[in-house]
Every structure is written in C-alpha cells, then in structure tokens.
C-alpha cells in the first residue's frame, strides 16, 4: 500500500528522531564527563574571577561597544548620505572608505591605533579611546551600507511631495527620509551592535591595564591564573551572551514589527480575502 505524503513525512521525522536519539546515547556513553567537568565547568577555582568579571570585564565590554556603536552610527550616517549624494566626489570618497574598511580585518585597525598612532603621530590613546575609535571606524563602514539601503527604501514620492510643497531638500531629508530609514533599518542596526560587541574582544592584542580589561582578556588570563582548564573562557562566553542574547531577541521583535513585514502581512490578508469570499 502506497504511503500518503503525510505518512511519508511522519516516517521521515520518526527516522530522524531515532537517529538523533541514538547519537545522543552513544555520546553519553563514550564521553568522559568527569574530564569535561574539570575542563569546562570547574567552577570552584574561577569563583575568584567574581565580581571583577562583571564589574570590570563586562562593564568595559559594554563601554567599548557603546561608544564604538554611537560614533560608528554617526559616521555611517554621514557616509550613507555621501553615497547617495549627487556630487560624485562625495560618492567616491564614501565608496573608497566603505570598501577599504569592509575589506580588511578589524584586527589591523586595532593594531594600527594601538601601536601605529603613537609611532606615527605621537598619540598616546587610552584603551577606551583605542577600542571605541577602532570599533567606530570599522562599524561605520558596515552601518553606512545598512543606512543607505534604508534611505533608498523610503518611497521617492514622499520626498517629491515635500519638495512640491516648497520644503528645502535638506529639511525633507532630515524630517522625512532619515527618520523613516532608521525605522526600517533598526533590526539590522541591532545586529551590527552584536557584531561590534564581539569585535570589542580584539582590543586584547594591544595590551591593557587590569582596570581596562574586557571579557576576552579576563578569560585568557584566567586560564593561566586559576588552572581551571577552559572554564574561565566559558565564564567569559556566558557574559558575552548576557549582552548579545537580549540584543538578538530585540532585533527579532523589531523585525516582526517592521514596516516591511507589516505591509507584507496586509498584502497577504488582502490576497486571502477575495479567495475566502469566493469560497463562501
């Protein structure tokens, strides 16, 4: 007897579940869980990391990310406006900047500011200044493309209507196009904040004082200080999740409420309504 599509789907799902359960059982049997506990969850030695891992490491990570994102957002907005400007020189400058800093590893920017700035210009930047500036330089290149896409997603008719009413181009841009663009790009901007949070770990390559340490440095130093295997890095990773998971949830919520998704839902309802009426 031939199986229906639904029966085949159920059979396939059952086979996959059985294979998964078998793999889990095998792993439970063959893994040395005592060694795993000693290497990754040896909490007693690393309790000495608290509360500094929160009050110093987590706090510094948040500070570096916050200032890097704010200045990156300002720079990205300027670059996005330059990318869509009618003056070609502005477009060339913005394009070169964006392509350059999107094309090189972020760690090079950290090294250049941490070591090259003092050698070339005699600047002695603090850890906060180095981290925030490096994150802002790199973040601006990515944020610019996100904001540019948002600006171009705003219907042109709104700007044309504002100009027809006698509103100057700059005022129409500031009061109509930019606010709507930011509403559109809020979810991807939140994802950029998550990426900058993780990139803040690169500051450890330039060295820092203990009071300026962020989570990655504290985790790396904890491996040698506490002889607790990889547990200090696990603690640092959990602290990163304290920052990134809420931001990920916020991004999904904003994406669900975004104008684009709301318009798609309305279109689906409008398309389904005639079908429903016809069936009735």
Automatic annotation (TrEMBL):
It holds the Pfam family BPD_transp_1. It is a multi-pass membrane protein. InterPro entries: AA_ABC_transptr_permease_3TM, ArtM/GltK/GlnP/TcyL/YhdX-like, MetI-like, MetI-like_sf. Residues 58-251 form the ABC transmembrane type-1 domain. One of its GO terms (molecular function) is transmembrane transporter activity. GO terms for cellular component: ATP-binding cassette (ABC) transporter complex. Keywords: Amino-acid transport, Cell membrane, Membrane, Transmembrane, Transmembrane helix, Transport. PROSITE patterns: ABC_TM1. SUPFAM superfamilies: MetI-like (SSF161098). It is found in: Cell membrane. One of its GO terms (biological process) is amino acid transport. Its main location: membrane. Belongs to the binding-protein-dependent transport system permease family. HisMQ subfamily. PANTHER family: GLUTAMINE TRANSPORT SYSTEM PERMEASE PROTEIN GLNP (PTHR30614:SF20), MEMBRANE COMPONENT OF AMINO ACID ABC TRANSPORTER (PTHR30614). This is Amino acid ABC transporter permease. It comes from Nesterenkonia salmonea. The lineage of its organism: Bacteria, Bacillati, Actinomycetota, Actinomycetes, Micrococcales.
